[in-house]
Specification:
Elements lengths: L6 E6 L13 E6 L2 H11 L1 H7 L10 E5 L2 E2 L15 E6 L5
Parallel strand pairs: 1-5
Antiparallel strand pairs: 1-2, 3-4, 3-5
Helix pairs in contact: 1-2
Length: 97
């Protein structure tokens, strides 16, 4: 069995976090699984990690990560295989009145 080649996926982050991603809100990365994509994103942009994850490694309560149209918190595992053209979005919940 040959390893799967990484595919290019689109990543988007909110404008308020663009200072964490070198001023970009949309860019692509190459990854084979969801876990790989998130790890790569947090390694490449360590400041983003501070805004997305708590010290204990859990997502901050106001942060959502979506793969295509599905909240990754609802997925059974993070070893979901990615296809070229998949979209990963980091979102921040906003509440108030």
């Amino acid at each position: 069995m040959t390893p799967t080649s990484p595919g290019e996926i689109e990543v988007s982050v909110p404008a308020m976090l663009r200072d964490c991603t070198e001023g970009r809100t949309r860019f692509t990365i190459a990854a084979t699984t969801l876990a790989d994509a998130i790890q790569q994103l947090m390694t490449t942009y360590p400041l983003l990690r501070l805004h997305v994850y708590r010290d204990d490694g859990q997502l901050r309560p106001h942060v959502l990560i979506y793969l295509n149209d599905q909240n990754t918190a609802w997925l059974q595992a993070d070893d979901v295989k990615l296809k070229p053209g998949d979209r990963l979005a980091v979102l921040q919940n906003v509440s108030g009145g």
